[in-house]
Design a protein that fits this description.
This protein is of the alpha+beta class and 160 residues long. It has three helices and nine strands; from the N terminus they run αβββββαβαβββ. The chain has helices at 5-9, 72-85, 114-128; strands at 13-16, 22-25, 29-35, 39-45, 50-54, 94-99, 133-138, 144-149, 155-159.
């Protein structure tokens, strides 16, 4: 993919995304995070040079008195709203989904684990919004370090 004019005009700022946080930008921003069972969704409109990423810990906020972006249902809604507010077009949106590992041996076994449930929450939301997932690197036993470029939608995920 080629970089947008904005990305070519100025070097990208960098941001480390902590668990329960999200960021969206119409300016070049390289967002990085570390994921285990958490999930990070990169949502972008490459034609407009707008994108964002979230990092959520739990799939849904049901039964929680204080819903925040720590929960997938809230984090996905907020990320979509912020990317659109930053100038993305809904028709131009695409996504990349990372994380959802089961890094602790004690939690491995039959049935799904927290990482699986987090991934399912993200994919259900994206499917419901008809946003295509261009890349998915999820599950397994190892965490990931992700670096995402908001201006062109490029991302790199390395297992750790």
């Amino acid at each position: 993919m080629s970089a947008s004019p904005a990305a070519q005009a100025a070097p990208a700022a960098t941001l480390y995304l902590h668990p329960g946080a999200l960021a969206a930008s119409a300016r070049p921003l390289a967002v990085s995070t570390i994921l285990g069972s958490c999930v990070g969704v990169c949502l972008f409109d490459a034609a407009r040079g707008v994108g964002g990423m979230n990092h959520f810990l739990l799939p849904d906020s049901a039964g929680n008195a204080r819903p925040t972006a720590r929960f997938g249902d809230i984090a996905m809604e907020q990320l979509l709203a912020e990317v659109l507010q930053a100038g993305a077009r809904r028709a131009g949106l695409a996504a990349r989904v990372y994380g959802g590992a089961c890094v602790l041996a004690a939690f491995r076994g039959p049935g799904d684990h927290l990482g699986d449930r987090n991934v399912s929450a993200a994919l259900r939301f994206l499917e419901g919004e008809r946003i295509p997932v261009l890349e998915r690197d999820t599950g397994g036993r190892h965490g990931r370090r992700v670096v995402f470029h908001t201006w062109d939608g490029a991302a790199e995920a390395r297992r750790i």
